[in-house]
Design brief:
The chain is mostly helical and 189 residues long. It is built from nine helices and no strands. α1 packs across α3 and α7 packs across α8. The chain starts with 10 loop residues before the first helix and ends with a helix.
């Protein structure tokens, strides 16, 4: 899409933008969130934030999906902060009545499809936040290192170094997890 800035004012442009990017954003959210209601709410919030900030989009600062992933990261981080301050019961009830059975099934299918990716996050728990952010954007969300650097507001060289360190740390953490899993299996047999 040539002019992302128009999604804030042109419903047809927004619909094209939404249809082009909704699957990628659903996957982005599903890799980070377990609850289907929260995933649906966050996906909607991400596109609302995109509409609100469409006028600030600049072609020379990254790809449209990179820009949208940056918005998604901010929306998800804001939600995590809010959830920590609010009662969980209130946040879970808010979106449930808005999903019909078909929508709920689609969200649950998407969450099931991303189960393996969520499990990788367990291995990422010991990787620093800065390194993990680059790895997530490149390895899970498919951005280039340059686009990931733009999303994170860092230099591409810094992103490459962080990506290398994150991959190395993840490899070690996953190997430890496999070792622990094997020893637990042996103990139970």
């Amino acid at each position: 899409m040539d002019d992302i800035r128009s999604i804030g004012t042109d419903p047809d442009a927004f619909e094209r933008f939404y249809r082009t990017h909704v699957r990628a954003i659903e996957g982005f959210v599903a890799r980070r969130v377990r609850d289907p209601h929260k995933a649906a709410d966050l996906t909607a919030d991400i596109f609302l934030a995109a509409i609100e900030s469409a006028s600030s989009y600049r072609d020379n600062r990254g790809s449209p999906i990179g820009w949208l992933y940056g918005i998604a990261r901010n929306v998800i981080a804001r939600d995590a902060r809010n959830t920590a301050r609010e009662l969980k019961a209130v946040s879970r009830v808010s979106g449930r009545a808005l999903l019909d059975a078909d929508s709920m099934a689609r969200v649950e299918e998407r969450l099931d499809a991303e189960l393996g990716a969520r499990q990788i996050y367990i291995g990422l728990a010991r990787v620093s936040e800065a390194e993990r952010a680059v790895l997530e954007l490149v390895a899970l969300d498919g951005l280039t290192v340059s686009d990931a650097a733009h999303v994170l507001g860092i230099q591409p060289v810094t992103a490459r170094v962080r990506l290398h360190r994150a991959r190395r740390a993840l490899k070690v953490n996953l190997a430890r997890a496999v070792d622990i899993g094997h020893s637990q299996v042996e103990v139970t047999q």
